[in-house]
Specification:
Helix content is 68%, strand content 0%. With 203 residues, it is mainly alpha-helical.
Length: 203
């Protein structure tokens, strides 16, 4: 949390100086902690990213990143699905084969409750990256398929995601896994308690 807050504060300073190119990655990386920001800070930082998007109107990676932020923040009061959909659509329309843009659009569609579109777009993102580990895409695909009534396919996508998560640590992935497990009615195993070391009774 302290690292993210430091990044966001530095991003604020750089933005005030007009160094938007340097401010943008700091603010994007800090957005997972949005729920800890004060209301003025949230409004200021969202406005800053909006300004950067308008300046860099053909930076489709930035469009995808910002769309993801607006659609997926855990602070529901800060979600803006209409704006997120517009940004993600623009990114995909200008680069239809870009997996990152498709992933963002698929995530936005899912958050907007458009299960069919979410499933279709996420499946395409996966198809374009056949040889890569894509737990995020598979988790969202699983949730979209479940909402479509495709329980068997959803279970398979969930299992694929778990297999691909091995060795990877990410707060977001953990959150998506919990969300998917809850939706699919899957009970996650509880972590085993660490053994208590016995006192050394040697003389």
């Amino acid at each position: 949390w302290l690292v993210a807050e430091s990044q966001s504060l530095l991003g604020d300073c750089l933005a005030r100086k007009g160094a938007f190119a340097d401010a943008e990655p700091l603010l994007v990386n800090a957005f997972p902690t949005i729920s800890t920001w004060s209301p003025p800070a949230r409004q200021r930082r969202v406005s800053t990213l909006e300004r950067i998007v308008n300046i860099r109107e053909h930076d489709w990676t930035l469009h995808s990143d910002f769309a993801w932020i607006l659609a997926d923040t855990t602070d529901l009061g800060q979600r803006s699905l209409e704006r997120a959909t517009s940004l993600a659509r623009q990114a995909v329309e200008n680069d239809p084969e870009n997996p990152a843009a498709l992933r963002a659009l698929g995530s936005v569609f899912f958050r907007a409750g458009e299960w069919d579109r979410a499933s279709e777009v996420m499946a395409k993102a996966i198809e374009l990256q056949k040889d890569q580990r894509l737990p995020h895409e598979h988790l969202f695909l699983a949730m979209a398929q479940w909402q479509q009534g495709k329980q068997e396919e959803a279970g398979q996508s969930y299992k694929t995601a778990l297999a691909q998560m091995k060795g990877r640590r990410s707060p977001d992935l953990g959150r998506y896994r919990q969300e998917a497990a809850k939706l699919l009615g899957i009970t996650q195993p509880k972590a085993k308690p660490k053994p208590v070391a016995k006192p050394d009774k040697s003389p």
